[in-house]
Amino acid sequence: MENFTPVQATVGGMIIGLAAALLYIWLGKVAGISGILGNLLQPRGSSKDDRGWRATFLLGLIGGPFLWFALSGQSAPALATSLPDLPLLIIAGLLVGFGTRLGRGCTSGHGVCGMARFSARSITATVVFMVSAIITVAIMRHGLGG
Amino acid sequence: MSDIKQPSTGNSRSILKSLAGLLCGAVFGVGLSISDMINPLKVLGFLDVLGNWDPSLAFVMGGALIVATLGYRMTLKRQAPSLMPFYDSTAITAIDRPLLGGAVLFGIGWGLVGLCPGPALANITLAIMQETWKPLVFVAAMISGMVIHGVLMNSTRKK
User: Fold this and answer.
1) Contact assignment for B21 to A56 by CB distance below 8 Å
2) Per residue in B118-139, pLDDT tens?
3) What residue of B is the nearest CA neighbor of A76?
4) Taking all residues of chain B, what is their mean pLDDT, rounded to a whole number?
5) For A60-77, how does the pLDDT look when each residue is reduced to its tens digit (9 = 90+)?
6) Most CB atoms closer than 10 Å: which of A90, A129, B147, B149?
7) Per-block average pLDDT, block size 10, for chain A (146 residues)?
């Protein structure tokens, strides 16, 4: 467990929770990233008024890490060596995109916002995608049956 | 200045909503950066329970849940959000096959590379700075998966 970073994890997590809380207090919206992006992709998904905050939220999400690493002087993770090659990236991306829309939520929408509202649906979804991901990693890293 | 009771039609109200979205998104992205959840290997370290297990992700979710729960509780006695006419309440409560199937598929994709939608998007600027196309390919595939879902849903609805 030498990679365990409890302080950064908790502080960073609380900041994520703050973003989710503010979005609900100000706009009454759930901070589920797959929903915010997915709705924006639907031609008839939302009104013009509703598209504005979705677009700026995603801009902030994309720009936030850039600002943080530029201002804090911390080093960002090396993404080229942390990610697999093209075929796996495409398969995984398709599964994440399709799966989060079918299940109507991802780590943020079900895992944080839904669980914070004690939604049985979101708690179930979170358990299922966690178990599914843990089994996938077990197979990928340790082979079938470990 | 802003009158909360006014119907939300004005231009300045639109700008405020967009600013609120921008700020929330940026704060969200900073949280992902500080907690290192933008790092796929960090996420895989949590999911790899048979290997050198790293419990950090559970602490990220715990921290986020505490603050989000407190924030949601603050809204219980309010009629409406600051800038919108009503709170989005999730109408669907059923635990059905799309929910379970979607969660299984999402979990497989997440486990394959260690990226979920938030961190994938948060990686875009870092990818450009580091001159690697990998996160961009993932995001393009993820958006394609979302669009494919939308098209399939539309065609089944029309039958």
Assistant:
1) yes
2) 999 999 999 999 999 999 999 9
3) B126
4) 92
5) 999 999 999 999 999 999
6) A129
7) 91 98 96 95 75 96 97 94 96 98 96 94 97 97 74
**Chains A, B: CB pairs < 8 Å:** 505
Answer whether B66's CB lies under 8 Å from A17's CB.
yes
Q: Helix, strand, coil: what percent of chain B each, to 5? A: 65, 0, 35
Classify residue A105 as left (phi > 0), alpha (psi -120 to 50) or beta: left
Every domain of chain A and the residues it spans: 6-142
Whose structure tokens read 């958006």? B143
- Whether residues B59 and A13 touch (CB distance < 8 A) is answered with yes
Q: ipTM of this model? A: 0.96
A65/B148 touch (CB, cutoff 8 Å), yes or no: no
Interchain contact B10–A (C-beta under 8 A): no
Mean pLDDT of B102-130: 97
Q: Alpha-carbon distance B2 to A57, whole Å?
A: 21
Give the C-alpha separation, B145 to B15, whole Å.
31
Distance from chain centroid for Cα A20: 12
Q: Write down the pTM of the prediction.
A: 0.94
Comparing CB atoms, the residue among B90, B107, B134 nearest residue A129 is B107
Give the E-state strand segments of chain A in sequence order: none
A78: its two tokens: 């090396």
Cβ pair A119, A131 in contact under 8 A? no
Q: Which of B27, B126, B139, B154 to mutate against chain A (most A CBs within 10 Å)?
A: B27
